[in-house]
Amino acid sequence: MSISPNVPSPQESYHYESAGTPRWIAVLFGLLFAAVAVVGYIGHQGQAKLEGDLSRQEDDNKVLKAQLEQANSRLADLKGHLDVTEQKIGMTRAELAQASSRAEAIRKDQITNDKKLTEQLGAVQKESEEKISAVATDVNGAKKDIDATKTDLEATKSKLDRATGDMGVMSGLIARNHDDLEDLKRRGDRNYYEFTLHKAKTPQRVGPIQVNVTKTDPKKSKYTLIVFADDKQIEKKDKTAGEPIQFYVGGTRSTVPYEIVVFSVGKDQLTGYLSTPKDGGSAAPAATPAKQ
Predict the structure, then answer these.
(1) pLDDT, tens digit, for every residue of 144-167?
(2) What pTM was estimated for this model as a whole?
């Protein structure tokens, strides 16, 4: 085998390496490479750990951020509630102030109204006292009127005396004038017929009978008349005003006589009344008067 002149032999190579690069340098480079590798590994491990820590820190930060946001939201809500509460408190204070002002106004109005009411009550009381006084005066006046009426009644009663008629029969109450006769009519004890008779030749009807006035004497208040009843003529001569003249009518069922009372005797006329009993029934037709 031939050897190329350009390729060194092993011995030449070894000699060359030994002469060009020392071994310790190679070892040094190996150590450096190993150190770099260790450092790189340690750096890689530290970086990985750091990245893990950073990742965990970020997660923690996210949690904290979320909690912070939640806390901020709660704070915002709380602030909102506080604002509303402050607003309500402000409104409540204003309302309380308004209510206090209103209460004060009502109190003043009440005082004014009480004063007015007191004045009105005083006026009403005064008016009532005046009215009571007036009523008392009216009552006293009415009492006096009643007393006067009672006195008048007593006077009327004294005037409406009983009398004995010209036939000796006790008469009922006697009227002395028109007013007394009205009182007797209101009593309703008998039938009453008021009359004004003139002196004439022919009789005039009074109730159920006829009467003819034949004589009048105003000065002595005396008169004479003829009664036509029950087919009879009954003359009553020289009778006095106020004296009951009595007669019976045969057609009646009563034993109580008819009565004529003359109030006054005038010139050629008589004023008075005829009274008949309630149970006397209808009288017999009056007798035909005789010619005078």
Answers:
(1) 766 765 665 555 454 456 667 667
(2) 0.44
Number of Cβ within a 10 Å radius of residue 261: 23
Q: What is the pLDDT of residue 225?
A: 95
Asked whether 175 and 243 are in contact (CB, 8 A), the reply is: no
For 176, residues 6+ apart whose C-beta sits below 8 A from its C-beta are: 159, 160, 242, 263
Element (H, E) at 190: strand 190-198
Find the radius of gyration of the CA atoms of the chain.
77
Cα→Cα distances 144→135, 138, 151, 257, Å: 14, 9, 10, 41
- Residue 165 dihedral angles phi and psi, to the nearest 5°: -75, 180
Which pair of structure tokens corresponds to residue 53? 């820590």
Pick the closest to residue 255 from 232, 238, 235, 280 (CA basis): 280
pLDDT digits (tens, 9 = 90+) for 81-130: 888 777 777 777 788 788 888 888 888 888 988 888 888 888 888 887 88
Tokens 């028109």, located at residue: 178
As a whole number of angstroms, the distance between CA 231 and CA 264 comes to 28
Q: Give domain limits for the chain.
A: 11-159, 162-277
